[in-house]
Write a structure and sequence with these properties.
This protein folds into two domains: 73 residues, Outer Surface Protein A, domain 3 (Alpha-Beta Complex), CATH 3.90.930; 90 residues, Ribosomal protein L6 (Outer Surface Protein A, domain 3, Alpha-Beta Complex). The chain is built from two helices and 13 strands; from the N terminus they run E-E-E-E-E-E-H-E-E-E-E-E-E-H-E. 27% of the residues are buried. 19% of the residues lie in helices and 36% in strands.
């Protein structure tokens, strides 16, 4: 039996849970999220708890779905009550970020600015819009209730200019560790 799956999800005050058949709708102060649970997993709402159960514990696929379904529902409850954040940094001389008309505009060393459309549930908070040299980064934070959508958008931003190993220039997550390589040694 899944250790994660058998834990009950406590619904905090201010969060409203609706279950219609297999369709969940969870609303809270940060937004509203919807999910259709897998037909092979049983989900019940009792008091202020969401209970996920697996009718067939011997089936390997159903055991995997059990833990996954519980984790997805828990992320939804956490997202609509507290929300998720993804802090990011941009390193590199002259690199910057700005938000214009529902798009993020990145100037990261290409001959043209790169524009990415911001999803509706994601908010971009720019703390330092431009880098100062190679040591002081541009800092921004992505936040929103949907963990999957937030992570996907953060990955798309990082993909524009991933950090390179020699000087460390590029876009990275704040907690990401970039392993640096030694450049060419000059011959004597």
């Amino acid at each position: 039996m899944s250790r994660i799956g058998k834990k009950a999800i406590v619904v905090p005050s201010g969060v409203k849970v609706e279950l219609k058949g297999r369709s969940f709708k969870i609303a809270g102060p940060k937004g509203t999220l919807e999910l259709d649970t897998h037909p092979e997993i049983d989900v019940k709402v009792e008091d202020n708890n969401i209970l996920v159960s697996n009718p067939d514990e011997q089936n390997r696929r159903k055991r995997a779905l059990h833990g996954t379904a519980r984790a997805l529902l828990n992320n939804m409850v956490t997202g609509v009550s507290k929300g998720f954040e993804k802090p990011m940094q941009i390193f590199g001389t002259g690199y910057n970020i700005k938000e214009q008309g529902g798009k993020v505009v990145l100037n990261v060393g290409f001959c043209h600015p790169v524009e990415l459309k911001v999803p509706k549930s994601v908010k971009v908070d720019i703390k330092a819009p431009a880098t100062r040299g190679n040591d002081v980064p541009a800092v921004f934070t992505l936040s929103g209730p949907d963990k999957q959508e937030l992570g996907q958008f953060a990955a798309e931003i990082r993909k524009v200019r991933p950090p390179e190993p020699y000087q460390g220039k590029g876009i990275r997550y704040t907690d990401e560790r970039v392993i640096r390589k030694v450049g060419k040694a000059l011959g004597a």
